[in-house]
Structure formats: structure tokens, C-alpha cells
Design goal:
mainly beta, 1 helix
């Protein structure tokens, strides 16, 4: 993958979950529990699947990118 910020090549890797599935939660002025129940939460990993999130890292500009098409949930 090419970095959209600096146009250098990115290295493919992953983040492993440990005890709990990873989720993306939109930041809003609500309690944490209200945010978890939000329908806009995106589940990134699953306890029943591999438990890892594929990411690309750019060592030049220090950015991480997740391709939503590569989420294994």
C-alpha cells in the first residue's frame, strides 16, 4: 500500500487483540457505555476469528492505516 500522506511504501502488519475485541467508537460527549451501544460502532476484531487487525505502517510519516475491506470479523 502507498501512504496517502507522503506517497512512500507502507509495511503490512497487524495489531493483536488480547482479552477483548477491538472496536472503533465515535468520540462524542456521552458516557462510555452510551458510546459502546452506539449503532455507529465498528467492530474491528472478533474473539471467535483470528483476533488481529491488519494495519499498514508508514515509517516515514509515522501513520497507521486500516483498510476496512481487510477487517476479519
Amino acid at each position: 500500500m502507498i501512504c496517502p500522506y507522503c506517497e512512500n511504501g507502507m509495511q503490512r502488519g497487524w495489531v493483536d487483540q488480547e482479552r477483548f475485541a477491538l472496536k472503533w467508537i465515535p468520540e462524542e460527549d456521552r458516557s462510555f457505555m452510551e458510546q459502546l451501544l452506539d449503532k455507529n460502532v465498528i467492530k474491528l476484531t472478533s474473539l471467535s476469528q483470528s483476533g488481529r487487525l491488519i494495519m499498514y505502517h508508514c515509517s516515514e510519516c509515522k501513520k497507521f492505516i486500516v483498510d476496512e475491506n481487510e477487517i476479519e470479523v
